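Sorry, can you check?
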Amino acid sequence: MAKRRYFAWSPLRALMASVGAKIVSRDAVDYLIDWLEEKAIDMTKRALTFAHHAKRKKITKADISLVIKGI
């Protein structure tokens, strides 16, 4: 069974091209997608901890901000 992707290949490739990466291998884009997905999952889990600590079910922008700041 193929792994479910949450980030689309084409928009990420377009983003890379917009900053000057005109030629990028498929493997490089796939590797970046895997890294971004792992990072997003980790950040969401940590933000959920902040939300639960505040006795909320909803993750807010403030929760994500705290995770990004590394608090």
